């Protein structure tokens, strides 16, 4: 006599349970955002440079030396970026007191304009009395503090990079073993690694283009510190869709102080024209083709991960989404239909893992044996 089948929960109950689990996981991520953010940043950087490790190993470089060279490359990237940003911000802070007279003139013009609207003099002075060069310099420092905060926990990030780079040397062997037991998990990790590298290559290329164009534009308009704003546009290019909106604010304010409203308007119009066409029209299409995410999904992922992990989540939004997609969608044949909703282009059949897909450490992984 056969045993009765186990009762199956109604689909509505399963959906509610799944939603509850998602809420718990997201709440946990927000609680440990200061830990998860740097760890994933380290993972993304190691995945990006892992082809270097594989290239060194193919040339018979010892394991320990390949790991050390990979770590040194990562450290040099971080030091160069952090040093350039710190030097530029220091120069900006030193420059702000020179605009005391311009601040005073703008404050008086603002007060006159408000008085014409019927606002009393006392209200005007109470509203603008604290606006001076030092307060604006403090505001600028706070704005850049969000970017500098990416490197605030430097020792922790450097340690994470060190240990991940050491583990990445023999990760291909682990992934080959995993492919024999869990081929779908191995394929999901391959997809995440390949998508992350393609995304960073595309964003870096477009970031360099907009950085050069913005620097030349601001230099031609005689806006102070054009190299700093070019560096800022390069960094904000990793924020999907709206990064240039953040990047235009500081040079526009300096343009207002340097040449008045006309220069500020010229900076905003020309800067947005260049960056909107490149970052919001051309780049999302190429990124979508490279990683398999539509522009809408990219934008929503930016909002979600920025809410969960803060400023670092905005920079890591696409790689985080690729990891979640690989482990939650691509890994299960029953959920691969979601790719039709997430992808930038429509395919008639779910894409199968490529035989020559790269592993997170840059080596090929053989197909799983037939069972």
From TrEMBL:
Localization terms from the record:
Membrane
Assigned keywords, A-Z: Membrane, Transmembrane, Transmembrane helix
Domain of life from the UniProt record: Bacteria
Q: Name one GO biological process term.
A: transmembrane transport
* Record has Iron as a keyword: no
Q: How does it sit in the membrane?
A: Multi-pass membrane protein
User: What are the boundaries of the region Disordered?
Assistant: 348-371
Query: Which Pfam family name is an example for this entry?
Result: AI-2E_transport
GO CC entries:
membrane
Q: Where are the transmembrane segments?
A: 12-33, 39-56, 63-87, 143-166, 199-221, 227-256, 263-282, 302-323
What the record says about family reads: Belongs to the autoinducer-2 exporter (AI-2E) (TC 2.A.86) family.
Protein name listed in UniProt = Permease
């Amino acid at each position: 006599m056969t045993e009765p089948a186990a009762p199956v929960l109604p689909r509505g109950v399963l959906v509610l349970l799944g939603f509850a689990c998602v809420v718990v996981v997201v709440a946990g991520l927000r609680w440990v955002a200061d830990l998860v953010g740097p760890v994933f940043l380290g993972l993304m950087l190691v995945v990006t440079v892992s082809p270097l490790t594989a290239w060194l190993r193919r040339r018979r470089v010892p394991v320990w030396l390949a790991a050390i060279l990979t770590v040194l490359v990562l450290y040099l990237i971080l030091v160069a970026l952090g040093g350039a940003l710190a030097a530029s911000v220091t120069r900006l802070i030193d420059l702000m007191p020179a605009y005391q007279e311009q601040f005073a003139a703008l404050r008086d013009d603002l007060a006159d304009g408000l008085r014409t609207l019927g606002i009393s003099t006392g209200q005007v002075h109470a509203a603008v009395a604290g606006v001076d060069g030092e307060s604006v310099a403090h505001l600028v420092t706070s704005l850049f503090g969000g970017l500098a905060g990416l490197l605030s926990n430097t020792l922790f990030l450097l340690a994470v990079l060190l240990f991940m780079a050491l583990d990445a040397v023999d990760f291909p062997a682990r992934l080959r073993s995993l492919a024999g037991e869990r081929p779908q998990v191995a394929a999901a990790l391959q997809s995440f690694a390949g998508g992350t590298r393609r995304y960073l290559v595309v964003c870096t290329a477009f970031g360099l283009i907009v950085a050069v164009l913005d620097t030349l534009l601001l230099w031609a308009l005689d806006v102070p510190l054009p190299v700093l704003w070019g560096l800022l546009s390069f960094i904000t290019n990793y924020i999907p869709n709206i990064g240039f909106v953040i990047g235009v604010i500081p040079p526009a304010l300096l343009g207002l102080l340097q040449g008045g409203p006309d220069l500020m308007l010229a900076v905003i119009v020309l800067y947005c024209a260049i960056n909107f066409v490149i970052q919001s029209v051309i780049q999302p299409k190429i990124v979508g083709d490279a990683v398999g995410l539509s522009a809408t999904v990219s934008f929503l992922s930016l909002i979600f991960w920025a809410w969960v992990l803060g400023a670092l989540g905005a920079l890591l939004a696409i790689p985080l989404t690729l990891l979640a997609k690989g482990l939650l969608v691509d890994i299960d044949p029953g959920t691969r239909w979601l790719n039709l909703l997430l992808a930038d282009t429509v395919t008639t059949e779910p894409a199968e893992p490529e035989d020559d897909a790269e592993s997170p450490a840059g080596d090929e992984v053989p197909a799983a044996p037939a069972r």
